[in-house]
Design brief:
about 475 residues; 3-stranded antiparallel β-sheet; binds benzoyl coenzyme A
């Protein structure tokens, strides 16, 4: 019999598909099996509302090189949410912080238990939150292709919740199990028990928001998972590595979703020789820019403060690394390095505040380091959308607003600034914010375009069809069978 590749073979036939040898740990298996009905109950009550018979979905089945997923029509409540960790590297060493060079950990060290649990809970909390935020979008999908992509994102966020719950159950005892329950009890936007991070309590009421969310907010997920993948706690690292595979599709949905909206807008602008496409069934560029401003700024908040002792401690302890840690050309300890971070400075004489930078120790500036990686990635989207505008003959361009614009967390939480970075008084902000953020009028117009197109091969007028279908299937494939 060939040697079993540690961790790589999946028990797909099990009640909870997994490659963590769940059957060898009856206690853990029972604990997860008792959480499973609560998860399913949450999915039924807080998950997608549009009734379907089945959906053409990708299901993770393995982690090896021979393909990790299979595609097929699945009734969503029967989706096989499984637990998959990337293959183990038996020689893996801690890559940064004070334990750099030591073997990675298979168990949670007592002294880091609270911090690790907190990171896993925060990560876990975002996953079901996004499903809750998107639950009503099926009713207004612009095509069956888009509907299928929405559900794909939703089931995979559900699986990412499973991934975090597995870690909580397997490594954090009773407290971990209690936290796993709480992940199903907090709800996006709830007044009594909201989701932990701000952006996950916002609404995703229309498809322009959905594409902006999957572009900007899912991209925060990519970067946070990228840093947790570096973790010295090996099960967390391997879990995040596997989640990142699924995350790539979510990025694609956002990037090409906005592409297609911009494409359609520029076509309508050209057809009618006007910039004013409101009333012509397309999304005005000014509205697209406002949605971009909103989703980008709330996503910047997700990186925490510009300076943070939490993040310094996480790094030093080896819990959370930097984006592409092994490509950084420094000592991976950072104890004597510094970084310039964005900050407010106050004129000693006049007391006037202005936006500037200040030098801090590299360790406390790590949230800024990650946010900057994220920002330069976001520029890539804007560049491609502007190329579409240019090729379509439009003179307008989209842009990312200034880092101080519309911030609720960090150095700029206490001030107001325009998208160009000029500071404003609170009164002026109140008066002018509708120039930069979606107003009720903008939202009402966007919603008026949200008429469902659930016929095979058809698409709504405000968005272009995609270039490619899913898994080699054509656009007019029967991606979803409605109930
Ligand atoms: N809203 O010291 P600071 C994803 C709190 S998305 C509300 O700067 P730290 C996904 C903070 O907790 C990725 N509160 O924070 C995407 C702290 O509270 P305490 C999710 C906030 O710890 C789409 C205080 O403010 N994963 O996967 O350095 C769909 C001071 O802040 C917020 C992670 O985030 C906020 N936005 O950094 C589906 C990774 N920000 O301790 C999924 C895990 C901060 O004073 N989390 N606060 O009570 C972390 O790494 C860090 O906790 C954070 C914050 C980056 C979030």
């Amino acid at each position: 019999m060939p040697a079993r590749n540690d961790g790589a073979a999946a028990d797909y036939a099990e009640k909870i598909p997994n490659n963590v040898s769940l059957h060898e740990d009856r206690r853990l298996q029972r604990a997860l099996e008792s959480w499973q009905p609560n998860f399913l109950n949450w999915w039924q009550t807080m998950g997608p509302t549009l009734p379907t018979q089945d959906v053409y979905l990708r299901t993770a089945i393995n982690v090896g090189r021979d393909g990790w997923a299979q595609f097929g029509h699945v009734a969503m409540p029967e989706y096989r949410w499984g637990i998959f960790l990337a293959e183990r590297d038996p020689g893996r060493k801690v890559g940064f912080g004070e334990h750099k060079g030591e073997p990675v950990w298979d168990k949670v060290p007592g002294e880091y238990r609270a911090e690790l649990q907190r990171l896993i809970v925060i990560q876990g909390d975002t996953e079901p939150a996004s499903v809750e935020q998107q639950r009503n979008l099926g009713a207004t999908a612009p095509s069956l292709y888009d509907l299928r992509n929405l559900f794909q994102v939703n089931v995979e966020e559900g699986r990412h919740l499973w991934a975090m719950v597995y870690l909580l159950h397997a490594y954090f005892g009773r407290e971990g199990r209690e936290e796993a329950e709480e992940l199903l009890h907090r709800n996006s936007g709830s007044l009594d028990s909201p989701r932990i991070l701000g952006a996950f309590n916002e609404e995703t009421p229309d498809w322009l928001s959905f594409f902006m969310f999957t572009y900007f907010t899912d991209r925060d997920g990519k970067y946070q998972l990228g840093t947790l993948k570096e973790s010295a706690f090996d099960p967390l690292s391997r879990t995040c590595e596997f989640m990142l595979k699924e995350e790539a599709h979510h990025m694609m949905v956002g990037t090409t979703g906005v592409d297609r909206v911009v494409q359609r807008t520029v076509e309508v602008m050209r057809e009618h020789d006007t910039d004013d496409v409101a009333g012509l069934g397309a999304m005005p560029l000014t509205t697209i820019q406002k949605y971009l401003n909103f989703h980008y700024s709330v996503s910047l908040d997700l990186f925490g403060g510009e300076t943070s002792t939490n993040v310094a401690n996480y790094y030093t302890a080896g819990l959370k690394g930097r984006w592409m840690e092994d490509r950084r050309k420094d000592d991976h300890k950072l104890t004597s390095d510094s970084i310039m971070v964005d900050a407010l400075s106050e004129d000693a004489r006049t007391g006037e505040q202005s936006i500037g930078q200040t030098e801090v120790s590299a360790l406390v500036g790590l949230n800024t380091d990650l946010r900057r990686e994220y920002i330069s990635d976001c520029q890539g989207g804007v560049k491609r959308w502007n190329r579409i505008l240019e090729e379509g003959g439009a003179k307008q361009r989209l842009k990312l607003p200034h880092i101080a614009f519309n911030r609720q967390v960090g150095a700029f939480a206490g001030i107001e600034a325009t998208p160009d970075g000029e500071t404003l008084s609170a009164d002026e902000w109140q008066r002018r914010q509708g120039e930069w953020l979606p107003t009720d009028v903008d939202k009402t117009y966007v919603r008026s375009l949200m008429q469902p197109v659930h016929q095979r091969g058809k698409i709504a007028a405000w968005i272009s069809p995609p270039r490619n279908g899913i898994n080699g299937q054509p656009f007019d494939y029967d991606y979803v069978h409605l109930a």
